[in-house]
Write a structure and sequence with these properties.
36% helix; 3 domains; alpha/beta; Hypothetical Protein Ychn, Chain: A; 5-stranded parallel beta sheet; elongated
C-alpha cells in the first residue's frame, strides 16, 4: 500500500479489486450524501467534523479514504500515514467511483454479489414498505419548489398516507430528510436512481407532530434591503419555512418597502419631498437592482434570465407562493411615513405594522433574520 510515512493513490478500478474485509474503508462525506450513495462497510467520519473522528479508526489494517472528489481524502490519508497507518486515497473520490460503475468497466472475475451490493442505493429507514398512494413529481423544480410541492400534497391527506416524491435537485436529499424530521412526518426510504432522488414519505399526525407544532418555532425576517438578490434569498427561505408548517412573518422597512410597491404609478396626494423620494426609488420588484455587479440594471436582467433558464421561480412567483402559503407580509408604517409611501401604492395582501408587531412575532420565533 505504500512506503513508510507516505500514502498511496488508487484508481476506481483498483478500488473495486480491494477485499473490503482486508482494509478499513473511511468515507469522509456528509451523512446525507452517504444516505443516498453509500459504500458497503465504510466507516463514516464526516470531514466537516474535524479530525477528532480519526482516533476511532482501528489499527492493524490498511486504510482506504474516500471523499466526494478526492481532495479531502488526500489530506486525511497523509495525516493517517504520518500517524503510522498504511493509507491510500481514492483518486477522484466517490464521483469517479460511481462514474466507473456506471460505465460498466469492471473487470471479469470480481465477486458479483459485492458489485451489485455496491450499486444499490441505501435506505434511509427500514420500517416496512407501506403501499404508495401517489407519486409527487417534483423533477426539474428548484429550491424551494420540491419541498413546497410535497408539503402542499400532504397537507390535507389523512394520517398514514404514503407517497413517493421524485426530484432531480441534489439538495432535495438533505432537505426532505430535515423536513420530515421537523414536521413529524416519516421518511421511509430515500434512494437515487438514474439521477432521480426518490423519497418515500408517510403522513404522520401523532404525538410527535403535535409536539413539533407546539414549539415556538416561527420565523421572522426583517427585510431592510431592496436589492434583488437579497430579496430572492429572503423569499426562498420564507417559502421553505412555510412548507415546514412554520408561522412566517416578513417585516419590510425602509428600502425593503420598494419590494411591495405596485409597478404602476398610483395617483395619491403627496408633498414635494415625498414625490421626489418616490421618483428616485424603484417601483416594484421588476425595478430592483443587484447588490453587486448591477451594471445599470443589466446584471439584474442577467440574473432573471439565468433563473428562468434553470427553471428557478421568479421573485414575483416566490412572492405569490409566499402569500398563498400564509406568509405574513408586514410593511413598517413608520418607514412608509418617512419615505412618503402610501398604503394605496402597495400590492395586495400587505398589512401595516410597527415595532410591536415585529417584536411580537420575534418572541414567537426561534429564528429572526435581518436582511
Amino acid at each position: 500500500m505504500g512506503e513508510e510515512n507516505s500514502y498511496k493513490h488508487i484508481s476506481a478500478e483498483e478500488f473495486l479489486k480491494i477485499d473490503p474485509a482486508a482494509v478499513t474503508l473511511v468515507d469522509l462525506r456528509e451523512p446525507d450524501e452517504v444516505l443516498i450513495g453509500g459504500i458497503e462497510g465504510a466507516l463514516n467520519i464526516p470531514f466537516s467534523g474535524g479530525f477528532s473522528g480519526l482516533d476511532t479508526i482501528p489499527q492493524g489494517k490498511p486504510v482506504v479514504v474516500i471523499c466526494r472528489t478526492g481532495n479531502w481524502s488526500e489530506e486525511v490519508a497523509e495525516i493517517l500515514a504520518d500517524r503510522g497507518y498504511e493509507a491510500a486515497s481514492l483518486d477522484g473520490g466517490y464521483k469517479a467511483y460511481k462514474a466507473f460503475l456506471n460505465e460498466g468497466q469492471q473487470e471479469d472475475g470480481k465477486p458479483e454479489d459485492r458489485k451489485e451490493e455496491q450499486q444499490k442505493e441505501k435506505k434511509a429507514d427500514i420500517k416496512g414498505s407501506p403501499e404508495v398512494a401517489a407519486i409527487v413529481d417534483a423533477k426539474n423544480l428548484k429550491c424551494p419548489g420540491p419541498i413546497v410541492k410535497v408539503a402542499d400534497y400532504l397537507r390535507d391527506k389523512p394520517e398514514g398516507t404514503t407517497i413517493q416524491a421524485e426530484a432531480t435537485e441534489d439538495a432535495f436529499a438533505s432537505d426532505i430528510r430535515v423536513w420530515c424530521e421537523r414536521t413529524g412526518n416519516r421518511l421511509d426510504a430515500l434512494t437515487m436512481e438514474n439521477g432521480i432522488i426518490k423519497a418515500q414519505i408517510t403522513r404522520a399526525e401523532g404525538k410527535e407532530q403535535r409536539a413539533v407544532a407546539a414549539e415556538q418555532n416561527g420565523k421572522t425576517f426583517v427585510v431592510f434591503s431592496g436589492d434583488l438578490d437579497k430579496t430572492i434569498a429572503a423569499f426562498i427561505m420564507a417559502n421553505g419555512a412555510a412548507a415546514m408548517g412554520r408561522k412566517v412573518t416578513m417585516f419590510f422597512t425602509f428600502w425593503g418597502l420598494n419590494i411591495l410597491r405596485r409597478p404602476e404609478k398610483i395617483s395619491v396626494k403627496k408633498t414635494f419631498i415625498e414625490k421626489m423620494f418616490g421618483s428616485m426609488m424603484p417601483r416594484g420588484t421588476k425595478k430592483l437592482g443587484l447588490s453587486r455587479m448591477n451594471m445599470g440594471g443589466a446584471g439584474a436582467k442577467m440574473i432573471r434570465g439565468i433563473m428562468k433558464k434553470k427553471g428557478i421561480s421568479s421573485l414575483e412567483e416566490l412572492i405569490d407562493s409566499a402569500k398563498d402559503h400564509g406568509v405574513r407580509l408586514v410593511a413598517c408604517q413608520m418607514s412608509m411615513d418617512i419615505m412618503g409611501i402610501c398604503k394605496e401604492e402597495l400590492i395586495d395582501g400587505i398589512e401595516l405594522g410597527g415595532v410591536s408587531t415585529f417584536l411580537g412575532s420575534g418572541e414567537e420565533s426561534d429564528m429572526s433574520l435581518f436582511i
